[in-house]
Amino acid sequence: MKKRFLFIIGVALLSSYSCQKDKLYPASATQVVADDQYLPFSTSARVVSQVLGLYSNMRSGQFYGGRLQVYNDVKAENWLNNTSNSVTAYQTWTQTVNSTSSEVLNLWSQAYFTINNCNLFLEGMAAKGSSVVGATLAANYIAEAKFVRAASYYALLNMYCPPFAKDNGASPGVPLRLTGNSVFASYDLAPSTVAQVFAQVVSDLNDAEAGLPLTYGDATNNTTRAHRNTAIAFKTRVFLAMQQYSSVITEANKIVSATAPFTATTGVANTMQTAVANVYKAPYTTTESILSMPFTTTEPVGSQNALADYFSGLGSSEFYLNPAGVLADATWKSTDARRALITVKNSKSYTLKYPGTSPYLDWAPVIRYPEVLLSLAEARVRSTNTIDAQALALLNAVRGRSDASTVYTAASFATPAAFANAIVQERNIEFLAEGLRWNDEWRLQLTIPSKNASIPAVAATDPAYIWPMSGNEQLYNKLIGR
Protein backbone atom coordinates (compact mmCIF):
# COMPACT_ATOMS: atom_id res chain seq x y z
CA MET A 1 0.00 0.00 0.00
CA LYS A 2 2.85 2.32 0.93
CA LYS A 3 4.61 1.66 -2.39
CA ARG A 4 1.39 2.36 -4.26
CA PHE A 5 0.98 5.65 -2.38
CA LEU A 6 4.53 6.72 -3.23
CA PHE A 7 3.96 5.86 -6.88
CA ILE A 8 0.85 8.01 -7.00
CA ILE A 9 2.75 10.95 -5.43
CA GLY A 10 5.51 10.54 -8.03
CA VAL A 11 3.04 10.54 -10.90
CA ALA A 12 1.38 13.63 -9.46
CA LEU A 13 4.68 15.45 -9.16
CA LEU A 14 5.65 14.62 -12.73
CA SER A 15 2.23 15.74 -13.91
CA SER A 16 2.58 18.95 -11.95
CA TYR A 17 6.03 19.57 -13.44
CA SER A 18 4.70 18.99 -16.94
CA CYS A 19 1.92 21.51 -16.40
CA GLN A 20 4.17 24.14 -14.75
CA LYS A 21 7.37 23.92 -16.80
CA ASP A 22 6.21 26.89 -18.92
CA LYS A 23 6.59 28.95 -15.75
CA LEU A 24 10.10 27.67 -15.25
CA TYR A 25 11.02 28.48 -18.86
CA PRO A 26 8.71 31.33 -19.91
CA ALA A 27 8.78 32.61 -23.48
CA SER A 28 10.72 35.85 -23.77
CA ALA A 29 8.50 38.89 -24.17
CA THR A 30 11.19 40.70 -26.15
CA GLN A 31 12.89 38.01 -28.22
CA VAL A 32 11.96 37.97 -31.90
CA VAL A 33 11.76 34.37 -33.01
CA ALA A 34 12.17 33.28 -36.61
CA ASP A 35 8.45 32.91 -37.24
CA ASP A 36 7.85 36.36 -35.83
CA GLN A 37 10.73 38.40 -37.28
CA TYR A 38 8.49 40.61 -39.39
CA LEU A 39 6.02 41.42 -36.62
CA PRO A 40 7.25 45.07 -36.60
CA PHE A 41 5.96 45.30 -40.17
CA SER A 42 2.54 43.78 -39.53
CA THR A 43 0.56 47.04 -39.31
CA SER A 44 0.85 50.49 -40.85
CA ALA A 45 1.39 52.06 -37.44
CA ARG A 46 4.26 49.70 -36.71
CA VAL A 47 5.88 50.37 -40.06
CA VAL A 48 5.83 54.15 -39.68
CA SER A 49 7.24 53.81 -36.16
CA GLN A 50 10.14 51.91 -37.71
CA VAL A 51 10.71 54.81 -40.13
CA LEU A 52 10.72 57.37 -37.34
CA GLY A 53 13.10 55.12 -35.44
CA LEU A 54 15.63 55.45 -38.26
CA TYR A 55 15.62 59.21 -37.80
CA SER A 56 15.97 58.69 -34.06
CA ASN A 57 19.17 56.72 -34.72
CA MET A 58 20.43 59.50 -36.98
CA ARG A 59 19.44 62.12 -34.38
CA SER A 60 21.61 60.52 -31.70
CA GLY A 61 23.84 63.00 -29.90
CA GLN A 62 26.76 60.83 -31.00
CA PHE A 63 25.84 61.46 -34.64
CA TYR A 64 23.92 64.15 -36.55
CA GLY A 65 22.30 65.29 -33.31
CA GLY A 66 25.48 67.10 -32.30
CA ARG A 67 28.78 65.27 -32.17
CA LEU A 68 29.31 64.98 -35.93
CA GLN A 69 28.93 68.76 -36.29
CA VAL A 70 31.23 69.29 -33.30
CA TYR A 71 33.99 67.10 -34.73
CA ASN A 72 33.75 68.84 -38.10
CA ASP A 73 34.12 72.26 -36.50
CA VAL A 74 36.81 71.61 -33.90
CA LYS A 75 38.99 69.52 -36.21
CA ALA A 76 39.43 72.71 -38.22
CA GLU A 77 40.88 76.04 -37.08
CA ASN A 78 38.01 78.15 -35.74
CA TRP A 79 37.85 76.96 -32.12
CA LEU A 80 40.09 76.79 -29.08
CA ASN A 81 39.58 74.34 -26.25
CA ASN A 82 38.55 75.30 -22.71
CA THR A 83 38.46 72.02 -20.81
CA SER A 84 41.02 69.43 -22.02
CA ASN A 85 38.27 66.86 -21.58
CA SER A 86 39.25 63.74 -23.51
CA VAL A 87 35.65 62.59 -23.94
CA THR A 88 34.42 65.85 -25.48
CA ALA A 89 36.44 66.12 -28.69
CA TYR A 90 39.71 67.28 -27.14
CA GLN A 91 41.71 64.67 -29.07
CA THR A 92 39.99 65.64 -32.30
CA TRP A 93 40.94 69.25 -31.61
CA THR A 94 44.58 68.38 -30.86
CA GLN A 95 44.77 66.00 -33.87
CA THR A 96 45.83 63.15 -31.55
CA VAL A 97 42.99 60.67 -31.93
CA ASN A 98 43.80 56.99 -32.16
CA SER A 99 41.71 53.92 -32.89
CA THR A 100 40.48 53.71 -29.28
CA SER A 101 39.60 57.39 -28.79
CA SER A 102 36.02 57.80 -27.66
CA GLU A 103 35.01 59.94 -30.64
CA VAL A 104 36.47 57.44 -33.10
CA LEU A 105 34.71 54.50 -31.45
CA ASN A 106 31.37 56.17 -30.80
CA LEU A 107 30.78 57.83 -34.15
CA TRP A 108 31.71 54.64 -36.00
CA SER A 109 29.40 52.58 -33.79
CA GLN A 110 26.43 54.94 -34.14
CA ALA A 111 26.87 55.28 -37.90
CA TYR A 112 26.92 51.52 -38.46
CA PHE A 113 24.09 50.99 -35.96
CA THR A 114 22.01 53.40 -38.02
CA ILE A 115 23.05 51.75 -41.29
CA ASN A 116 22.20 48.29 -39.97
CA ASN A 117 18.74 49.41 -38.89
CA CYS A 118 18.21 50.87 -42.37
CA ASN A 119 19.25 47.54 -43.91
CA LEU A 120 16.93 45.56 -41.63
CA PHE A 121 14.09 47.97 -42.39
CA LEU A 122 14.58 47.61 -46.15
CA GLU A 123 14.55 43.83 -45.83
CA GLY A 124 11.44 43.93 -43.66
CA MET A 125 9.66 46.13 -46.18
CA ALA A 126 10.54 43.74 -49.01
CA ALA A 127 9.30 40.74 -47.05
CA LYS A 128 6.12 42.16 -45.57
CA GLY A 129 5.91 45.89 -44.94
CA SER A 130 5.28 47.02 -48.50
CA SER A 131 2.23 44.79 -48.83
CA VAL A 132 0.88 46.15 -45.55
CA VAL A 133 1.20 49.89 -46.28
CA GLY A 134 0.68 49.87 -50.05
CA ALA A 135 2.88 50.92 -52.93
CA THR A 136 2.83 54.69 -52.42
CA LEU A 137 3.72 54.73 -48.73
CA ALA A 138 6.19 51.88 -49.22
CA ALA A 139 8.08 53.91 -51.82
CA ASN A 140 8.14 56.88 -49.44
CA TYR A 141 9.39 54.87 -46.45
CA ILE A 142 11.99 52.94 -48.44
CA ALA A 143 13.29 56.23 -49.83
CA GLU A 144 13.62 57.66 -46.32
CA ALA A 145 15.63 54.63 -45.22
CA LYS A 146 17.94 54.99 -48.20
CA PHE A 147 18.42 58.68 -47.47
CA VAL A 148 19.38 57.96 -43.86
CA ARG A 149 21.75 55.22 -44.98
CA ALA A 150 23.37 57.54 -47.53
CA ALA A 151 23.85 60.31 -44.96
CA SER A 152 25.39 57.80 -42.57
CA TYR A 153 27.88 56.49 -45.10
CA TYR A 154 28.77 60.05 -46.09
CA ALA A 155 29.61 60.82 -42.46
CA LEU A 156 31.95 57.81 -42.38
CA LEU A 157 33.63 58.95 -45.58
CA ASN A 158 34.06 62.46 -44.21
CA MET A 159 35.74 61.42 -40.96
CA TYR A 160 37.55 58.13 -41.65
CA CYS A 161 38.50 58.19 -45.33
CA PRO A 162 40.96 60.03 -47.60
CA PRO A 163 39.39 62.73 -49.79
CA PHE A 164 37.98 61.54 -53.10
CA ALA A 165 40.28 64.00 -54.89
CA LYS A 166 43.41 62.33 -53.51
CA ASP A 167 43.31 59.53 -56.11
CA ASN A 168 39.84 59.68 -57.61
CA GLY A 169 38.52 57.46 -54.83
CA ALA A 170 40.95 54.57 -55.27
CA SER A 171 42.01 54.57 -51.60
CA PRO A 172 40.49 52.09 -49.14
CA GLY A 173 37.24 53.36 -47.70
CA VAL A 174 34.99 51.66 -45.14
CA PRO A 175 33.13 48.33 -45.17
CA LEU A 176 30.05 48.67 -47.33
CA ARG A 177 27.36 46.76 -45.43
CA LEU A 178 24.10 46.52 -47.37
CA THR A 179 22.39 43.58 -45.64
CA GLY A 180 21.03 43.55 -42.13
CA ASN A 181 22.82 41.82 -39.25
CA SER A 182 20.31 40.39 -36.76
CA VAL A 183 21.95 37.21 -35.40
CA PHE A 184 25.34 36.24 -34.02
CA ALA A 185 27.64 35.43 -36.94
CA SER A 186 30.94 36.32 -38.54
CA TYR A 187 30.70 39.71 -40.17
CA ASP A 188 34.22 40.03 -41.49
CA LEU A 189 34.15 42.40 -44.45
CA ALA A 190 36.98 44.20 -46.25
CA PRO A 191 36.64 47.93 -46.90
CA SER A 192 35.32 49.02 -50.25
CA THR A 193 37.19 51.79 -52.02
CA VAL A 194 36.29 55.40 -51.37
CA ALA A 195 34.85 55.57 -54.89
CA GLN A 196 32.64 52.52 -54.28
CA VAL A 197 31.26 53.96 -51.05
CA PHE A 198 30.57 57.29 -52.75
CA ALA A 199 28.84 55.42 -55.58
CA GLN A 200 26.55 53.72 -53.06
CA VAL A 201 25.77 57.06 -51.42
CA VAL A 202 24.83 58.55 -54.78
CA SER A 203 22.74 55.48 -55.69
CA ASP A 204 20.83 55.68 -52.42
CA LEU A 205 20.25 59.41 -52.84
CA ASN A 206 19.02 58.91 -56.42
CA ASP A 207 16.59 56.27 -55.20
CA ALA A 208 15.56 58.56 -52.35
CA GLU A 209 14.86 61.44 -54.72
CA ALA A 210 12.65 59.18 -56.84
CA GLY A 211 10.65 57.84 -53.90
CA LEU A 212 10.38 60.74 -51.47
CA PRO A 213 7.28 62.95 -51.43
CA LEU A 214 7.48 66.51 -52.74
CA THR A 215 6.21 67.68 -49.36
CA TYR A 216 4.70 66.34 -46.16
CA GLY A 217 2.31 69.28 -46.01
CA ASP A 218 3.49 70.67 -42.67
CA ALA A 219 6.60 72.61 -41.66
CA THR A 220 7.74 70.24 -38.91
CA ASN A 221 7.85 67.13 -41.07
CA ASN A 222 9.33 69.14 -43.95
CA THR A 223 12.23 70.03 -41.65
CA THR A 224 12.73 66.77 -39.76
CA ARG A 225 12.05 64.14 -42.44
CA ALA A 226 13.63 63.82 -45.85
CA HIS A 227 11.54 65.04 -48.78
CA ARG A 228 12.56 65.20 -52.43
CA ASN A 229 14.48 68.46 -52.10
CA THR A 230 16.38 67.07 -49.10
CA ALA A 231 17.85 64.29 -51.23
CA ILE A 232 18.73 66.74 -54.00
CA ALA A 233 20.36 69.17 -51.57
CA PHE A 234 22.41 66.40 -50.01
CA LYS A 235 23.54 65.29 -53.45
CA THR A 236 25.03 68.75 -54.04
CA ARG A 237 27.15 68.22 -50.90
CA VAL A 238 28.23 64.76 -52.04
CA PHE A 239 29.09 65.73 -55.61
CA LEU A 240 30.98 68.79 -54.35
CA ALA A 241 33.04 66.45 -52.16
CA MET A 242 33.77 64.35 -55.25
CA GLN A 243 34.67 67.50 -57.21
CA GLN A 244 32.15 66.46 -59.84
CA TYR A 245 31.08 70.03 -60.44
CA SER A 246 28.84 69.45 -63.45
CA SER A 247 26.75 67.08 -61.30
CA VAL A 248 26.55 69.71 -58.54
CA ILE A 249 25.15 72.15 -61.10
CA THR A 250 22.65 69.62 -62.45
CA GLU A 251 21.32 68.81 -58.99
CA ALA A 252 21.29 72.37 -57.68
CA ASN A 253 19.41 73.63 -60.73
CA LYS A 254 16.51 71.37 -59.72
CA ILE A 255 15.92 73.42 -56.56
CA VAL A 256 17.50 76.82 -57.30
CA SER A 257 15.82 79.31 -59.59
CA ALA A 258 17.94 80.89 -62.33
CA THR A 259 17.82 84.38 -60.82
CA ALA A 260 17.39 86.04 -57.44
CA PRO A 261 15.51 85.82 -55.16
CA PHE A 262 16.64 82.21 -55.26
CA THR A 263 14.09 79.59 -54.28
CA ALA A 264 13.02 76.04 -55.03
CA THR A 265 10.12 76.22 -57.46
CA THR A 266 8.94 72.63 -56.96
CA GLY A 267 8.35 70.60 -53.84
CA VAL A 268 8.97 72.40 -50.56
CA ALA A 269 9.54 76.08 -51.34
CA ASN A 270 13.02 76.17 -49.84
CA THR A 271 14.51 79.65 -49.74
CA MET A 272 16.58 81.84 -47.43
CA GLN A 273 15.02 83.71 -44.55
CA THR A 274 15.06 87.49 -44.68
CA ALA A 275 16.98 87.56 -41.38
CA VAL A 276 19.57 84.92 -40.58
CA ALA A 277 18.66 84.96 -36.87
CA ASN A 278 15.24 83.47 -37.68
CA VAL A 279 16.88 80.12 -38.41
CA TYR A 280 18.15 79.64 -34.86
CA LYS A 281 14.98 80.08 -32.84
CA ALA A 282 11.76 78.19 -32.26
CA PRO A 283 9.96 76.68 -34.04
CA TYR A 284 13.10 75.96 -36.16
CA THR A 285 10.95 75.07 -39.15
CA THR A 286 11.73 77.79 -41.68
CA THR A 287 11.92 76.93 -45.37
CA GLU A 288 15.67 77.61 -45.13
CA SER A 289 16.17 74.60 -42.85
CA ILE A 290 16.11 71.73 -45.33
CA LEU A 291 16.91 69.15 -42.63
CA SER A 292 17.40 69.54 -38.88
CA MET A 293 17.51 67.15 -35.95
CA PRO A 294 14.76 68.04 -33.41
CA PHE A 295 14.80 67.71 -29.62
CA THR A 296 12.11 67.85 -26.94
CA THR A 297 12.07 67.63 -23.16
CA THR A 298 11.26 63.92 -23.46
CA GLU A 299 13.91 63.37 -26.15
CA PRO A 300 16.84 65.68 -25.32
CA VAL A 301 20.25 65.37 -26.91
CA GLY A 302 22.18 65.16 -23.63
CA SER A 303 24.51 67.77 -22.17
CA GLN A 304 27.82 66.40 -23.44
CA ASN A 305 26.38 66.14 -26.94
CA ALA A 306 24.55 69.46 -27.21
CA LEU A 307 25.91 72.04 -29.63
CA ALA A 308 25.19 74.73 -27.02
CA ASP A 309 27.37 72.94 -24.49
CA TYR A 310 30.28 73.01 -26.93
CA PHE A 311 29.99 76.34 -28.70
CA SER A 312 27.68 78.75 -26.84
CA GLY A 313 29.52 79.32 -23.58
CA LEU A 314 26.82 77.38 -21.73
CA GLY A 315 27.20 74.34 -19.50
CA SER A 316 30.71 72.99 -19.87
CA SER A 317 31.71 75.67 -22.43
CA GLU A 318 34.00 73.18 -24.14
CA PHE A 319 35.27 75.50 -26.90
CA TYR A 320 35.49 79.21 -27.67
CA LEU A 321 36.15 81.00 -30.94
CA ASN A 322 39.74 81.32 -32.06
CA PRO A 323 40.59 85.04 -32.47
CA ALA A 324 42.94 84.05 -35.28
CA GLY A 325 40.32 81.95 -37.10
CA VAL A 326 37.41 83.16 -39.17
CA LEU A 327 36.82 85.93 -36.63
CA ALA A 328 39.94 87.64 -37.96
CA ASP A 329 38.60 87.92 -41.53
CA ALA A 330 38.64 91.65 -42.30
CA THR A 331 36.06 91.22 -45.06
CA TRP A 332 33.55 89.99 -42.48
CA LYS A 333 32.33 93.39 -41.39
CA SER A 334 31.30 94.32 -37.87
CA THR A 335 27.91 95.38 -39.24
CA ASP A 336 27.24 91.92 -40.73
CA ALA A 337 24.19 90.41 -38.99
CA ARG A 338 26.13 87.18 -38.48
CA ARG A 339 28.52 89.08 -36.22
CA ALA A 340 25.50 89.71 -33.97
CA LEU A 341 25.31 85.93 -33.47
CA ILE A 342 28.60 86.08 -31.55
CA THR A 343 28.77 86.95 -27.87
CA VAL A 344 31.70 87.63 -25.55
CA LYS A 345 31.86 86.08 -22.08
CA ASN A 346 34.90 86.49 -19.83
CA SER A 347 36.89 87.84 -22.78
CA LYS A 348 36.13 84.76 -24.91
CA SER A 349 33.83 84.64 -27.94
CA TYR A 350 31.04 82.11 -28.42
CA THR A 351 28.16 81.62 -30.84
CA LEU A 352 24.53 82.54 -30.14
CA LYS A 353 23.22 80.07 -32.70
CA TYR A 354 22.35 77.67 -29.88
CA PRO A 355 21.07 79.85 -27.03
CA GLY A 356 19.05 77.25 -25.12
CA THR A 357 20.22 76.19 -21.68
CA SER A 358 19.83 72.70 -20.18
CA PRO A 359 18.15 70.44 -21.31
CA TYR A 360 19.43 71.94 -24.59
CA LEU A 361 16.50 71.76 -27.00
CA ASP A 362 17.97 73.80 -29.87
CA TRP A 363 17.61 71.81 -33.09
CA ALA A 364 20.82 70.64 -34.74
CA PRO A 365 21.12 71.82 -38.36
CA VAL A 366 22.13 69.25 -40.96
CA ILE A 367 21.70 71.19 -44.20
CA ARG A 368 20.40 74.68 -44.97
CA TYR A 369 19.43 76.27 -48.28
CA PRO A 370 22.38 78.72 -48.41
CA GLU A 371 24.71 75.72 -48.62
CA VAL A 372 23.06 74.69 -51.87
CA LEU A 373 23.43 78.24 -53.24
CA LEU A 374 27.12 78.45 -52.37
CA SER A 375 27.78 74.91 -53.64
CA LEU A 376 26.22 75.88 -56.96
CA ALA A 377 28.27 79.08 -57.07
CA GLU A 378 31.52 77.24 -56.36
CA ALA A 379 30.74 74.52 -58.88
CA ARG A 380 30.05 77.07 -61.61
CA VAL A 381 33.32 78.87 -60.98
CA ARG A 382 35.45 75.72 -60.79
CA SER A 383 33.82 74.09 -63.82
CA THR A 384 34.06 77.16 -66.09
CA ASN A 385 37.22 78.72 -64.60
CA THR A 386 35.53 82.09 -64.98
CA ILE A 387 34.12 84.77 -62.72
CA ASP A 388 30.66 83.51 -63.54
CA ALA A 389 27.74 85.96 -63.39
CA GLN A 390 25.27 83.59 -61.73
CA ALA A 391 27.90 82.57 -59.20
CA LEU A 392 28.34 86.27 -58.32
CA ALA A 393 24.58 86.59 -57.83
CA LEU A 394 24.49 83.52 -55.60
CA LEU A 395 27.38 84.74 -53.45
CA ASN A 396 25.80 88.18 -53.18
CA ALA A 397 22.50 86.61 -52.12
CA VAL A 398 24.13 84.89 -49.14
CA ARG A 399 26.42 87.79 -48.18
CA GLY A 400 23.75 90.41 -48.87
CA ARG A 401 21.19 88.76 -46.60
CA SER A 402 23.42 89.67 -43.63
CA ASP A 403 25.58 92.45 -45.07
CA ALA A 404 23.80 94.64 -47.61
CA SER A 405 26.79 96.99 -47.77
CA THR A 406 28.94 94.43 -49.58
CA VAL A 407 28.17 93.73 -53.23
CA TYR A 408 30.68 91.71 -55.20
CA THR A 409 31.33 92.40 -58.87
CA ALA A 410 33.63 90.76 -61.40
CA ALA A 411 36.21 93.40 -60.55
CA SER A 412 36.24 92.22 -56.92
CA PHE A 413 38.36 89.19 -57.80
CA ALA A 414 41.66 89.10 -59.65
CA THR A 415 41.21 85.48 -60.80
CA PRO A 416 38.58 82.73 -60.82
CA ALA A 417 40.65 80.96 -58.15
CA ALA A 418 40.36 84.00 -55.88
CA PHE A 419 36.62 84.01 -56.49
CA ALA A 420 36.35 80.32 -55.58
CA ASN A 421 38.33 80.95 -52.40
CA ALA A 422 35.93 83.75 -51.46
CA ILE A 423 32.99 81.38 -51.84
CA VAL A 424 34.67 78.81 -49.59
CA GLN A 425 35.34 81.53 -47.02
CA GLU A 426 31.70 82.63 -47.21
CA ARG A 427 30.77 79.06 -46.28
CA ASN A 428 33.21 79.32 -43.38
CA ILE A 429 31.37 82.41 -42.10
CA GLU A 430 27.81 81.30 -42.84
CA PHE A 431 28.08 77.80 -41.35
CA LEU A 432 30.28 78.54 -38.34
CA ALA A 433 29.42 76.01 -35.58
CA GLU A 434 27.24 73.98 -37.98
CA GLY A 435 29.74 71.29 -38.90
CA LEU A 436 30.96 72.11 -42.40
CA ARG A 437 34.45 73.58 -42.01
CA TRP A 438 36.40 70.31 -41.88
CA ASN A 439 34.17 68.94 -44.63
CA ASP A 440 35.33 71.79 -46.89
CA GLU A 441 39.01 71.44 -45.98
CA TRP A 442 38.83 67.67 -46.48
CA ARG A 443 37.18 67.75 -49.91
CA LEU A 444 39.68 70.36 -51.16
CA GLN A 445 42.68 68.70 -49.46
CA LEU A 446 43.48 71.93 -47.64
CA THR A 447 46.01 71.97 -44.84
CA ILE A 448 44.39 72.24 -41.41
CA PRO A 449 45.94 75.41 -39.98
CA SER A 450 47.74 75.44 -36.66
CA LYS A 451 45.46 76.42 -33.77
CA ASN A 452 48.15 77.39 -31.29
CA ALA A 453 51.85 76.96 -30.64
CA SER A 454 51.45 73.37 -29.45
CA ILE A 455 49.23 72.10 -32.26
CA PRO A 456 51.00 72.19 -35.63
CA ALA A 457 49.30 72.45 -38.99
CA VAL A 458 48.29 69.14 -40.55
CA ALA A 459 48.79 68.64 -44.28
CA ALA A 460 46.56 66.42 -46.37
CA THR A 461 49.46 63.98 -46.74
CA ASP A 462 49.82 63.55 -42.97
CA PRO A 463 48.37 60.30 -41.53
CA ALA A 464 46.67 62.41 -38.82
CA TYR A 465 44.62 64.21 -41.48
CA ILE A 466 41.82 61.63 -41.20
CA TRP A 467 40.65 59.50 -38.31
CA PRO A 468 41.85 55.89 -37.98
CA MET A 469 39.25 53.17 -38.21
CA SER A 470 37.52 52.10 -35.03
CA GLY A 471 39.63 49.88 -32.78
CA ASN A 472 36.59 47.72 -32.12
CA GLU A 473 36.18 47.15 -35.85
CA GLN A 474 39.85 46.26 -36.12
CA LEU A 475 39.46 43.80 -33.25
CA TYR A 476 36.38 41.96 -34.55
CA ASN A 477 36.65 42.36 -38.32
CA LYS A 478 39.71 40.43 -39.48
CA LEU A 479 39.41 41.83 -43.00
CA ILE A 480 39.35 45.51 -42.09
CA GLY A 481 42.94 45.98 -43.24
CA ARG A 482 43.75 49.18 -41.36
Automatic annotation (TrEMBL):
PROSITE patterns on file: PROKAR_LIPOPROTEIN
Under InterPro entries, the record lists:
SusD-like_N, SusD_RagB_dom, TPR-like_helical_dom_sf
Give compartment(s): Cell outer membrane
Q: Which CDD domains match?
A: SusD
- Superkingdom classification of source: Bacteria
Which residues are in the RagB/SusD domain?
340-443
Q: Which residues form the SusD-like N-terminal domain?
A: 71-240
- What UniProt keywords are attached to this protein's entry? Cell outer membrane, Membrane, Signal
State the GO CC annotations. cell outer membrane
Q: Which Gene3D superfamilies match?
A: 1.25.40.390
Q: Which family does it belong to?
A: Belongs to the SusD family.
Protein name in the entry:
RagB/SusD family nutrient uptake outer membrane protein
